[in-house]
Design goal:
488 residues; alpha/beta; GMP Synthetase, Chain A, domain 3; Rossmann fold; Helicase, Ruva Protein, domain 3; 4 domains; five-stranded parallel β-sheet; three-stranded mixed β-sheet; 21 helices; globular
Length: 488
């Protein structure tokens, strides 16, 4: 018997004498040594999955420490190997930058004393960045770093109303849920608020758990990710924080744009992203903005957001809005006449939440006044709410949006410069001006510094042709279209 085997047998014997027999048989007996990864001061144990590891860490950490202390094995580290993932030392994995999975001790001693200089600096930096006071119990994040997934079970693919504006995003989410870590990684979903991004995130998590109840799925908003990190930095719990977010099968971060200008949070998320990506674990991110448009975010994170697939959700067209409205009405047990549905859908067009709000408003108005859900009631209910005339979109509006998107000046778009960094955005701006304002080719040419109308025609057709095969261009154009539609 090797020394590692002797040490492990001694620890097992101690645990058997100190634990209920049922607990010992369920949690300790199935453990086995991974002898090739054991050394004179390291015991490496084989675990069936990460869920098993979490149970050991949450419930049995004190018992392992007690065994080490009682047997004089304080200098022995207990580490783990899940399935075929290597334990320590860290092993270089194939990745864009030669990334490595960070090694960690399975049952480390609690840190003592003050934070080290690195953590103190990061803690103070992040606390200064935070726009709200230190989180208190019950404030939306777990001080115990609970493994509760927090998914809304009613958010599934089955009750997500598909349409042309979201079918690509839904299809990619379903593919990810059916084959996490293999299809599109990371998957970055962007679109304006209230279009269903969060619904799709929850649907991914619910589908993954439906297919594999032992999968480790972690869902959190970027704001709560930051709040948990601040708390853990202050209370020397960063090891626990990293175990929660770096050792899961699927990590879903909602509204990632809120980590803009939060340097320490970006740093922590960067390393979390690297660890999961290297381990081929699925990452799904949502944002209100295209990665390039998120302000005050590090380029290394922006680049990683674009490693996998970017899928956008556009505002629904009127037919899609009617379908969504009828689905929501059905869930409320409300019967809407076709003319009422069409009236609401044609006017409440910014996002799905506006549709839901309009539905709840007319439903409440109907109950309050004991009246049927008629067209007359709809006109009366929304006379001061819906039907405001939209602002007219102009070529100047398009120019400003394109210049901001590509980090240029409007004067650059009107200039005669032919460098690609200017010519490419100029072509996009001319295309959008033609498509979204209906301006004539000569009028557009005049607004772009006196360009000939044939030049405008050439640039518009070039973009139209390129959209059929250039996915990056398509993403830029759709992002700009959405911005312009939402602002006018």
């Amino acid at each position: 018997m090797t020394s590692s085997e002797q040490i492990w047998q001694s620890i097992k014997s101690y645990l058997k004498s100190s634990l209920d027999d049922s607990l010992f048989q369920e949690w300790i007996e199935p453990l086995s040594l991974d002898i090739p990864n054991c050394t004179s001061n390291i015991i490496t144990l084989k675990l069936p999955n990460l869920v098993y590891y979490q149970g050991l860490q949450n419930e049995f950490s004190p018992h392992f420490r007690a065994a080490k202390d009682a047997l004089g094995y304080q200098m022995i580290d207990i580490r783990f190997q899940v399935n075929e993932h290597s334990a320590i030392p860290s092993i270089e994995l194939d990745g864009p930058n030669g990334l490595a999975i960070e090694p960690f001790e399975m049952f480390p001693e609690e840190p003592e004393g003050e934070l080290n200089d690195e953590n103190r600096h990061r803690r103070d930096s992040e606390v200064n960045e935070a726009t709200q006071p230190t989180p208190k119990p019950g404030s939306g994040f777990s001080r115990s770093l609970s493994r509760e997934v927090g998914l809304k079970h009613e958010y599934t693919f089955e009750n997500f109303v598909r349409g042309t504006s979201n079918q690509f995003a839904m299809a990619t989410c379903m593919s990810v849920a059916d084959n996490p870590g293999a299809a599109y990684n990371p998957l970055f979903i962007y679109g304006s608020t209230g279009l269903g991004k969060t619904h799709l995130l929850h649907a991914v998590g619910n589908r993954v758990l439906q297919k594999n109840k032992h999968a480790v799925v972690t869902y959190i908003s970027s704001e709560n990710f930051m709040n948990e990190m601040i708390y853990c930095l202050r209370h020397n719990k960063m090891w626990e924080f990293r175990q929660k977010y770096r050792f899961c099968d699927v990590l879903m971060i909602d509204d990632v744009q809120f980590i803009a200008n939060k340097k320490a949070t970006q740093e922590e998320f960067f390393h979390t992203f690297n660890t999961l990506y290297a381990a081929k674990k699925q990452i799904v991110i949502t944002s209100d903005l295209f990665p390039q448009d998120i302000p005050d975010i590090e380029d290394r994170l922006r680049n990683r957001f674009q490693w996998g697939l970017i899928a956008d959700i556009q505002p629904p067209d009127v037919e899609h809005r009617i379908a969504i409205l009828n689905k929501k009405a059905e869930q409320l047990g409300v019967k809407l006449d076709d003319d009422v549905s069409e009236y609401i859908a044609k006017h409440a067009k910014r996002n799905i939440r506006e549709l839901e709000g309009a539905l709840h408003r007319i439903h409440a108005y109907s109950k309050l006044h004991a009246r049927a859900l008629s067209m007359d009631l709809a006109l009366e209910t929304f006379k001061d709410v819906l039907g405001e005339p939209p602002k007219r979109l102009t070529v100047e509006h398009v120019q400003k949006a394109v210049a901001d998107h590509f980090k240029l000046k409007i004067a650059d778009l009107k200039s005669k410069r032919r460098q690609r960094a200017v010519a490419y955005p100029r072509q996009v701006a001319m295309y959008l001006a033609r498509k979204m304002t209906g301006a004539s080719f000569p009028e557009i040419g005049d607004r772009f510094g006196g360009k000939d109308h044939t030049t405008v025609m050439h640039n518009v057709r070039k973009i139209e042709d390129s959209l059929l095969r250039d996915l990056d261009l398509k993403a830029h154009v759709e992002s700009l279209e959405r911005q312009l539609e939402q602002s006018h």
